[in-house]
Amino acid sequence: MRKTMSDGAITYQRVFLIAIVVGVISGVGALLFFEGLKIGTHFFMETIVGYSLPEEGQSFTEIAMWSPPQSPWLILPVICLGGLLSGLLVYTYAPEAEGHGTDAAIRAFHGEGRIRRRIPLLKALTAIITISTGGSAGREGPTAQMSAGFGSMVADFLGLSERERRIAIATGIGAGIGTIFKAPLGGAILAAEILYTRDFESDAIVPAFLASVIGYAIFGFFEGFEPVFSPVSVDWSVVHLPFFLLLGAFSAVFGILYIQTFYGTKKVFSSFFEKHRIPNHIKPLSGAFLTGAIVVSLCYISPETAMMGLGGLGTGYGFVQLALYSMLPLSVLLVLPFVKILTTSLTVGSGGSGGVFAPGLVIGGAAGGAIGMALHIVIPSLIPPEIIPGFVVVGMISCFGAISHAPIAVMIMVVEMTGNFSLFVPAMGAVAVAHVLIGEKTIFIEQVPNKAQSGAHRGEFSVDVLEEISVEEVMVGRPAVISLDPTDPCEKVFSLITTTHHTGYPVLEGNRIVGIITTRDVRELLADGDLSLPVSERMSRNVVTIAETSTLEEALQVMIEHDIHHLPVVREDDPFILSGFLTRTDLMLAHTRFLSTRK
Fold this sequence. Notes:
It is built from 24 helices and six strands. By secondary structure, the chain is mainly α. The strands form two sheets. The chain has a four-stranded mixed sheet with strand order 1-6-5-4. A two-stranded antiparallel ribbon has the order 2-3. The longest helix has about 35 residues, at about 10-50.
């Protein structure tokens, strides 16, 4: 019954198990999702709309064959159909699946560490519908939420602890994104970096490495191991560094505009539908209609504005590839970032399913290409045309690396995606400038600044003070402990919660502890609805305890490792006899009192 403190640690065996299972599921899931997107895009865009769109990874000759649709107006009914179907599915079955998905996965990590089992499949389906019908969104956000959801399922199946569950979710985020982008190293780093604005989840690194490799191997076996974008060689020298730093400053401006427009649009949609009591089910349809109307209007103005509008559809990666080949005129590069910001805000901000990563890369890449081309026009001897693709790549990195507060991961991922490993140095400088100028603004609002503000690390504070206090000094003594008998009905638990406001109660037979029941068990009880069951049927029998002679530092470690808030205190000579009860609140109060006496 009694466990030692080391039992809660994540062992190497557990790390390998989590990584292998999550990696396999992420690889297979990303593959099926990617194939679904290809089929959907071919059907809606090519067959119905007649749009031979440019694609990432195509050679110069292949991509030169792209052509706009002969009847651009067909885009409007197709994109509206996608918005309608996506909205009906999401808001009928799982409203938390709306939007870009990465925030939902981050929220699950910092929260309860659980994602409903229906979410991965529903997110995949709605994202395929949204993106393949022309909605401006990326495939990484849905992949992150899908893989994190599968990680949550793995945790349920393997009976993982709360701490291990969160690591499985973080691993799923990194493995899923790294797999779909064929960027396993960047994806693994992203698993640890994307959760915070100023911190790093180091425990996720090792399992994410292994899971990303496994997912990448599975995905690449079927889709090939070439980079997402066809590489373009770029030669730069130290004299170009100031211009790349300047690009970092411009990237911050576009990044801030992206964040403000995205969340401003989202707020407008939410308040309008709430004020007029319109069902949310058609909210993505309204965003899709506005997106389609903008794109179709641009298509009928001129060939150049048509390119601007079409670049605002889907992931937009084909237009990044065109920019890498220097096949987009300056006018298109100048306007495309604004169009992509607007269409993405309308698509995802209205509740459509899709990520914000891909649009962020398109925005940064087009802005970088525009700045590079403008500099070439002004100082052609210093900025030759051959270096313009370098500005596209660095723009992608500096823009999204800054607004995601994951500069290291995004830098590595984009370099892996483009095959331009020589651009690390200018990318480092540009993303550093952009990151400083962005400040605390973020595209992922569920990020928290550091571990101290994360639910995954609640209660972790200075332990040197706690080493000087024994559990016996702080615990609630046995006579004052509110306990339950195994034969008590579960209804009594609700009565105690209401009257005492405590969240956990030991279950005793005499003075011997046989179990514990907490609010987590109560939530499951509410789902079952049978309150007449005896407490013995719902309590946890695998009780974690602490000896009364232990220090509060040892008690805190037990609580953190098992992610629990209550510790039954037992006698040193008999680990089955209850002598008191300790909670995290008791720990914090003791910590505060001790510090106040030292002043």
